[in-house]
Write a structure and sequence with these properties.
There is one protein chain. This protein has helices at about 35-40, 45, 60-70, 115-160, 165-185, 200-210, 235-255, 320-330, and strands spanning about 20-25, 30, 75-85, 90-100, 105-110, 195, 220-225, 230-235, 260-275, 280-290, 330-340, 340-350. The strands form 3 sheets. A 5-stranded antiparallel sheet has the order 2-1-5-4-3. Strands 7-9-10-12-11 form a 5-stranded mixed sheet, sandwiched between helices. The chain is of the alpha+beta class. The protein has 2 domains: about 10-115, PAS domain (Beta-Lactamase); about 195-355, Heat Shock Protein 90, CATH 3.30.565. It contains 8 helices and 12 strands. The chain is elongated, with a radius of gyration of 26 Å.
Length: about 350
Amino acid sequence: MNPPIKLDKTNDLELIATSIVLVDDNLKIKYMNPSAEDLFQSSFKFAKDQHITLIFSESDYLEEVIQKTVSTKSTFKEHNFHVFIKGVEKIITFSVSFSDELEYKFIFEFVEMDQILKAAKEERMLIQQKANSELLRNLAHEVRNPLGGIKGAAQLLKLEAPKSFNDYIEIIIQESTRLQKLMDNLMQPYRLPSFRKTNIHEILEKVRNSLSFEFSKIEFDRDYDISIPEPEVDSDKLFQAFYNLIRNSCESIFKSEKNDGRISISTRAERKVIFYNRLHHTVLAIYISDNGPGIEKNIQDKIFFPLVSNKTNGSGIGLSIVQNFIAVHNGIIDFKSVPGKTVFKILLPIEHKND
């Protein structure tokens, strides 16, 4: 017998990624969780008390499954089942369980195969981000102190050595300074963040203004949803994340010598979004797209790894820092890239909560 599920607003089913539909003995829908609403593109308010074929149209197969479930009093499972939802074919895994509850008799559980792949990808990204953080922190600690010693020794040497050596010594000092700044950037993600309600569009505009002078031939399009609530963020860290991301787009377009370079920045509020196996009732979505040459396929799976770059003189830490800063906000970043179009999508919870 399945444990009872209370159909109230505090139901734990609201928080899980699996799509759950509860129906009575007449196969009338009694409950759908947010994941099911998203999968079947139908609200529970609209579907309530309607026949399940409203969302799952294969009625003949459904009756067969129900009969098997009732006769065996056990859970029926089907893997890699093809179903059409709003005219779009999707591959799902689903199960049907019998219940003795008065409010409902059957529990349907649906998992979209794309969702399984998405969850696996998010888990890999989370593991990768933690590994990246550890690597960058250790690298910065190991390199930072010796660099200070090299720079100090070079400055003392400049005072004692013949002037004919000054140019060589100055190169040592300049390169040591450059590497020290790089190490400071590597350490920046680990400084204690300060979260406060912030207008996200002010941060994006500050980044745009900083880059529009240097890349004056690139057009910036903005599509901001000004009704979005102010999220709780560390504005300095988000500025650096957006700056690195948008600068990468600018440099990519500049390198391709496009005459019609264009970067689009848009914001939206998205509701009932699940990532990292957590339901977020409202998240801020930021889309940054460009019409540059795209990210090379051979590095797309590892662009957030430290020291990976498709730029000749790139350090390969810019996107690692972006990922770290987004992770500090319990957010997630992903992208799609083909020649002529690259789109980065960042999701940030409106309210910051410590894990």
